[in-house]
Write a structure and sequence with these properties.
26 helices
């Protein structure tokens, strides 16, 4: 008994390892183009459904496709509506594993192809480690071979256990009990494919009847949602929504399958080919009830997406706008979200600069007032806690650095690492600009209240120069001006900075302007110009574009 149990566990471990190894190889082979295809193939419900089915069939893992879909939804690259469609398709695609196991695992002598595949894959990995395509093929060979070798161990162990199990006791259990067994088995080993392989093995050696096996497969379909539900705990809202959509689909599908189990079994067993080949019949049943679930729920995807979007709303607002919605495990979508977050920080810093200069950001970003008009209409002090606002910018910086740290753990391409460096440089420059501006807010307020027309004139000149630079960056962000034109325009800001310095230095001879005030004017002007230079460098992240967006 113990020997057979150890053999069964060893076979299960080998099956899971083979599946994981093959999954990783296929995921590596899929690369950026595959993910771009998934993103671009969701313009309609049918396309989303077919994409989920094909992607899962190719990757041999509904979990990977589910997580990939989650990543795309979180990064706003596809809608939740399209994401649910892909999840539905993934449930149909995952039934291909049952067909592979049922046809090859029980019809062909395992040693005839599993061992040669492992051997060939091992030799290729040994002698061609530098050829990426050959290495991927070799890994698929090894994973595929180990998967079926593990299946053979499980099948042999379960066959040996038949003499030790009292089949009479099993026959008295209600079918719903087998659904529970299938659920807990899948939840325990975290793989519906492995659980289905165990059920197929038990059916093959006649430990289970067809109806009992079918009930267990229904249970595995519910059990596979546990992986997603556990992964969603404490996660982002969209992660929880996708996991819940997965659970709702599988639960309703399971209920429908259980209700038609008896008549469908009777119908299928009416065919001689299926009656004498229950393993194939079970694979067919698995596919039929998943397709049935799609047919039942496909018309309600829009309603489901609408209802789910109202759940799991953040109670406490996050300081970030994009990156907290995305899993850094998926580098392509993570980089898009990071770029958007860095640009959001850049815009926040520009708005912070305007508030420090007592100019309403709305007048510039929304009303699009001109340079002279914006300064003339904003002569009053703007009361806001500049320290709290600066701390918010720092919080965003910290969140970005945490996200980048997690992203750096992924296997990034060379161009992705270069983009990451550009984004980090932009973050540093934006925060540096904010720091320079934070320290001059009190001086700006003093200048705005000064009774000296000279001080007020220089104060307005400093504000105009700051606003001029920000308008350059806005035109660059909105793709009105090229980077070359922006640099050309910024040179005028440099000239104006020198003019202000000269005017402030000469003002010492004016009556009522003491040296201390002049030094404050010079330091304020210097801080503003350094901040605009930092923002110019920070703006370089705006033009970053990633292949996934094509």
């Amino acid at each position: 008994m113990i020997t057979q149990f150890i053999q069964a566990l060893s076979g299960l471990g080998m099956f899971l390892f083979g599946m994981l190894y093959m999954e990783l190889a296929l995921k590596e082979a899929a690369g950026r183009r595959f993910k771009t295809w998934v993103k671009n193939s969701t313009s309609s419900t049918i396309k989303s459904l077919m994409t989920g089915t094909l992607a899962t069939a190719l990757l041999q893992s509904s979990s990977v496709v589910t997580l990939m879909t989650l990543s795309f939804v979180s990064a706003s690259l596809i809608t939740l509506y399209s994401g649910i469609g892909i999840i539905f398709g993934a449930n149909v695609g995952t039934t291909l594993t049952s067909w592979i196991v049922a046809t090859l695992g029980f019809k062909v002598k395992i040693e005839a192809f599993a061992l040669p595949m492992i051997g060939a894959g091992g030799l290729l990995l040994l002698f061609a480690p530098d050829h990426k395509k050959i290495t991927i093929v070799a890994k698929v060979f090894v994973g595929f071979g180990l998967l079926f070798l593990g299946l053979e161990f499980m099948k042999s162990a379960i066959e040996s256990l038949t003499s030790l199990i009292d089949l009479e006791k099993l026959s008295h259990l209600p079918l719903i009990a087998f659904i529970g067994i299938g659920f807990f088995l899948t939840a325990l080993i975290q793989s519906s494919s492995a659980a289905t392989a165990i059920v197929l093995s038990a059916l093959y050696v006649h430990i289970l009847s067809f109806e009992q096996s079918a009930a267990m497969v229904i249970g595995t379909n519910i059990g596979t949602t546990v992986t997603a539900m556990l992964g969603a705990m404490g996660g982002i809202p969209d992660k929880k929504r996708v996991a819940l959509a997965h659970f709702i689909f599988n639960l309703i599908t399971a209920v429908a399958a259980f209700l038609i189990l008896a008549p469908l079994t009777q119908f299928m067993m009416g065919f001689q080919g299926l009656k004498h080949d229950p393993v194939i019949a079970l694979a067919l049943f698995h596919t039929i009830f998943n397709i049935l679930g799609v047919v039942l729920l496909l018309p309600f995807i829009s309603l489901m997406a609408k209802q789910l979007s109202q759940l799991f709303v953040h109670v406490e607002p996050e300081p970030t706008r994009y990156i907290h919605l995305v899993d850094p495990q998926f580098s392509e979508t993570a980089l898009v979200a990071l770029r958007d977050e860095v640009n959001n920080l850049f815009v926040k810093t520009m708005k912070y600069a305007l508030l420090v200069a007592n100019i309403k950001p709305n007048d510039v970003f929304v009303k699009k007032l001109g340079l002279k008009e914006a300064v003339e209409l904003n002569q009053e002090q703007i009361e806001f806690n500049h320290k709290i606002a600066y701390n918010t910018i720092k919080e965003i910086e910290i969140k970005i650095m945490e996200f980048v740290s997690a992203l750096n753990q992924q296997d990034l391409l060379e161009d992705e690492r270069k983009s990451l460096e550009t984004l980090l440089a932009s973050v540093r420059e934006s925060v540096y600009a904010a720091k320079m501006l934070k320290d001059i807010k009190n001086d700006m307020n003093e200048f705005s209240e000064s009774s000296s027309s000279t001080i007020h004139s220089i104060y307005d000149a400093i504000r105009r120069n700051l606003l001029y630079a920000i308008m350059i960056y806005i035109n660059y962000m909105e793709e009105v001006w090229s980077i070359e034109k922006c640099l050309e325009k910024f040179s005028k800001s440099e000239e104006e900075n020198k003019r202000i310095m000269k005017e402030a230095s000469l003002s010492i001879s004016h009556k009522g302007i003491n040296e201390k005030k002049v030094v404050s004017l010079l330091n304020t002007n210097r801080s503003v110009f350094i901040a605009t230079q930092a923002l110019l460098e920070a703006s370089r992240s705006v033009s970053l574009h990633f292949p996934l967006e094509d």
